[in-house]
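Shipment paperwork, digital attachment
Item: protein structure file
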Amino acid sequence: MTSTDAKSVVLAYLKAIDERDAEAIQATLWEDAEFRIPGEHPLAGSWVGLDEILNQFMLPLMELFSTDVPYTIEMTQVIAEGDTVVLDCVARAASRSGRPYEAPIVSVFAIQDGRIKAMREFFDTQYFVRTLFGDDNG
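Attachment content:
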């Protein structure tokens, strides 16, 4: 797969997330894809397979955000080398309580045969917990 092809897979995934299109999200992922979010917070962990990724990670994550403010992803940079794509972006939204949320994120995707095989995501976990779970001690 060329870097351009790998990049287009990630861009299709981001478009599907932006449109909240579960079917399109699933079409970009392998059945046994793995998402990993390092850290020590309620959504840290590893999810393997479409069911876990969608139902144990994505849906619980989206429930943390206000439905009145759109969840947007602004791409700063997308770098593709072979089957690896690195996305540097900023996620913007609001918490359920209306608190503004703006988080720089770096995601590393492994692409295999035109679909996402794995994703690791890195961000400020203290900010994440403080903003979305109301922990003002951090």
